[in-house]
Amino acid sequence: MKIIFLISSLLLLTVTASGQQHEGLKPDTAVNNININDYESTERILGKNSWSKQFEQAGSLPRIEAVNKTGTQILRLFFHYGGSKNSVDEFELMSVDSAYKIPKQAIHLKDEQFITSNKISLGISKGDLVKKLGNSYKSSVSGNVERLVYTVDSKSNFVRRYNQHMYYIRCVFKGDTLIKYAFGFESL
């Protein structure tokens, strides 16, 4: 009887420990059916010649920018040096304000808005986002702008599966409204 109790206790501890590796965080892996590290999905959504639209700005990784139908949101797709062509490593969604100049290379899409695999879109409240991602974040506040950062390190099965060292989600709220949302694998 003691052996059965010991084995079941160890089994319970093992299951509990493996379930806590993300602390409740389900990583986002796509935006509007463009999947992380999947060149085929990028080409299916943006076209096989989408790489010709990529550009670099000082201090930034190569990227492609897409604009939603109404011109109010930008989707930035970042590519790491040494990675596969059209294989997205990092995503960034942001609201467009009147000061932002849309690059001439930007791809104009027919989508009304950008939605992630976790059903996150710009404009949601902090409460709604935390319900979806959990509260294992670090926060900083400056005036009415709050930033949340979630991270998953190389010990997680998710990060190891992609052969990466760190995954992040970064959120920026103005007031209680999500105005910028970025996620992906950290560049070395």
Describe this protein's structure.
The strands form two sheets. The chain has an eight-stranded mixed β-sheet, with no helix packed on it. The protein has 188 residues and is α+β, with helices and mostly antiparallel strands. The protein contains four helices and ten strands. Mean pLDDT is 87; it is low at 1-22. The chain has one domain (23-185). It is globular, with a radius of gyration of 19 Å.
Main features:
alpha+beta, 10 strands, disordered N terminus, globular
CA-based shape: globular
Query: What ranges have pLDDT less than 50 throughout 5 or more consecutive residues?
Result: 1-22
- Biggest β-sheet strands, sense, barrel: 8 strands, mixed
Query: If helices are DSSP runs of H or I spanning 4 or more residues, what is the number of helices?
Result: 4
Query: What is the string of SSEs from the N terminus onward?
Result: HEEHEEEEHEEHEE
Strand order of the largest sheet: 6-3-4-5-10-9-8-7
DSSP strand count? 10
Taken as a percent bin, the fraction of beta residues is 25-35%
Classification by helices and strands: alpha+beta
Radius of gyration: 19 Å
Distance from N terminus to C terminus (CA atoms, Å) equals 52 Å
The domain count comes to 1
**Residues in helices, as a percent range:** 10-25%
Average pLDDT, all residues: 87
